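<purpose> Linking amino acid order to shape
<body> The protein record starts here
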Amino acid sequence: MNQNQKKKNQQKKKADLNKTYRDIGPYLGLGTQLAATIVLMFFFGRWLDQYFGTEPWLTISFSMFGGFAGIYNVIRTTLNLNKKQQGEKDN
């Protein structure tokens, strides 16, 4: 194998790796978004419970709402990204 073929193979591998990173990049932050939504809603519910003296009802309610909202966001984002990737493959 000569030098030109080696360079072409290395360039192809780099291009494939870059494409892989571009494809998975948007999915990497979804777990963090899910966790952040749940944690923020938990602390917001806890703060409201302390303010209104209704412990633990608002903490539980807002934590559940945060979980549902976070999961909804993950599903919605995943579906949108999949549609976008399918559109790019069709072109």
Notes: The chain has three helices and no strands. The CA atoms of residues 31 and 74 lie 8 Å apart. The helical segments are 3-28, 30-52, 57-90. The two ends are 35 Å apart (CA to CA).
